[in-house]
Prior knowledge:
Strand content: under 5%
Strand order of the largest sheet: 7-6-9
Distance between the termini: 45 Å
Helix content: 55-70%
Amino acid sequence: MSPPENPNGAGPAAPSDPAPQPPAKSKGKKKDEKKDDDLSEEDAALKEQLELYVVRAQDADPGVQKLALESMRQEIRSATSSMTSVPKPLKFLRPHYGILKSYFETMLESDLKKYMADILSVLALTMSAEGERESLKFRLLGSEGDIGSWGHEYVRNLAGEIAQEFQKRQDDDTPIDALMELVQQIVSFHMKHNAEPEAVDLLMEVEDLDLLVEHVDSTNYKRTCLYLTSSSKYLPAPDDMLALDIAYTIYMKFEDLASALRIALLLDNKSMQYVKQVYTATDDLLLKKQFSYIIARHGLAMEIDDEITADDNDKEVLQEIVNNTKLSEGYLTLARDIEVMEPKSPEDIYKVHLIDGRGASSSLDSARQNLAATFVNAFVNAGFGQDKLMTAPSDSSSSGASGSWLFKNKEHGKASAAASLGMILLWDTDSGLAQLDKYLHSNDAHVVAGALLGIGIVTCGVKNDCDPALAILMEYISKDDPNIRIGAILGLGIAYAGSQKEELKTHLSTVLGDSQSTLEVLIFSAIALGLVFVGSCNEEIAQSIILTLMERSEAELAEPIIRLLPVALGLLYLGKQESVEATAEVSKTFDEKIRKYCDVTLMSLAYAGTGNVLKVQKLLGICSQHLEKGETHQGPAVLGIALISMAEELGAEMAVRSLERLLQYGEQNIRRAVPLALGILCISNPKVNVMDTLSRLSHDADADVSMAAIISLGLIGAGTNNARIAGMLRNLSSYYYKEAAHLFCVRIAQGLVHLGKGLLTLSPYHSDRFLLSPMALGGLVTVLHACLDMKSTILGKYHYILYIIVLAMQPRMLLTVDEDLKPLPVPVRVGQAVDVVGQAGRPKTITGFQTHSTPVLLAAGGAS
Length: 864
């Protein structure tokens, strides 16, 4: 605080003073006098007192010196305990800092010299020159006393200087033991005074996070771990994994096992070993059931063995939860509770009566429209087990209405129609396999292919000890008809995504190596392998896919669907960062038509969900080049920006801004990918600014841009029933009523917005946006890459690629169960999650909540 002004109004050298200017020498004196006049009596006395102490501190008599230093120390301590402005003692001692420093140099080694060093260390807080680190220098020369008694600001300043000094000593290779002792004291002080983030920051600077474990206690471990896990997103490798590892150790120390399990799932390389540790750390079966639900949601394929529990009955119960067998039951409980069991027809979604004017009557019974209706019907009734097209009972014949709807589709359309039954019966394996079985005996190859794909979809994310899907689909994998083979192969890929089954590797690699296989069979085999071994870095499979790519002829490399081969290769390294480098080197030897495409795809998938800023910059660099026609690798670069940045909110917002720039200045092939990139950044999370951008692009002059924007409107609104997006899509359906391709995209988007009647989400993140499911992301990436060239994939004969999105479909529900796993209504607060990382005290983690009884739906960013 500045000293109060003199009541006479003579401020420090008031500019309007009419007095004549005195000679220069007396001017300084007058100023000093005036300044002294400004001080209150109390302050003036303090100043005199301190000046006396300074003189006495240089006295020859050690007794006098000691008394003076003691008194000075007392004054400074009482003033620095709270720092709202520069404390008065520090202010008054400022002119004497140099004198005391010079005197200190002349003192002999003694306790008094250490005393003096302590005082100089505190004075240096406000007086030392930038970068001199004098406060730390004197601290190291001073006594070993308690540093906290000098106040928070002093400790904070010391921590900053230690970080710089540590760096310098590391570079000069000088010992750091004295520094580390000081670090111990500072960390201990911070942890006792609710400044956990500062303690963590200091330990990161001095590269010794392990120290943290012994300083946390039961009152502050949650806040410490929250800061560690949140900051790990912004740390470079391998520091990010180290921070998570420490958080895991702390959670285990305080037996917060569920939190430890979440981190174990995030730590890829040690995942299984840590997961086992969490299970074996407790004997409580209920806790183990809770862990099993977390693992099932993450989609980790795991065997419950004797280590985890010795009792066979318990083992069976836990394995059943991990296998997700109860998912369908829980989902239908939610549907009944919210009263949405009534099946919906595509017409209920289109709401044609709300559209005025043209397009209202364009209900042409064309094959393309019927195909669109098939998808809408499958998406809307996903998992409900009943609908009005495929499962509706009919009086006329035993095959029912499903037969008649099936044959309203042409050729490959029948495959999607049959597969849609799998989507409607999603997760209900028993009933699903029974209903699909009749189509396996059809004479129409497309219907059989669809049924095989349907079997894969039904068992997606639900594991079974008998592996019925494997038994059925394996029979068809080597049939002659390529459609049937694709159905079986893709079915296997969807059913066993992320399971890393060795048996599948053998069979599908054989298909990949078969020179008789058609190009599309090869490509779908590679995709299936990519999905089953997602993020496994499996070298053998990578070799097989690389060989397949190298052996392709010029003509085959010109086929648009060939682009899915690099995607399959990338899926093996999804989120695995540097592990991809050897494969990326090999990809540089490919044919130039696919080389760059492969390179960019591998990089974007390997760093997906990591938030790596350097890679984003590299991809933006690729997007800034203006290339000749025919170059296609900028599309995946744009998608890559979104995939890498989706890791955390800040990165996602910045990516949205960067994508806006690309829209303004990018070439056409970049503009076509931007809507899809926006779609994945805000998937199942309709942000208004992104919605507006996509709405604008959906009327773009370029057909590919507008179709991508329409599909992306479906993606950002997926499973939200968002009324604004639904309205936009209705208007688009009347705007494009003559454009069959656009109308198809509008229908698909309408189906996505009403996904599972608003009970499902496509977001690959779960557990408060903390964990990323590799299977879900793998499915989304495959579909998005297929959408980069819609005319030849989704709008061509490969529309069934859309079903791969089932890997990302999850109920956005919170369901509570009792000890016997029966649903149990519990009142919970549902509201918006609040970011409380590094905030003081114990702030509320939820805002704007309402209390509901479970089961409840959670929106994006919602908490309970």
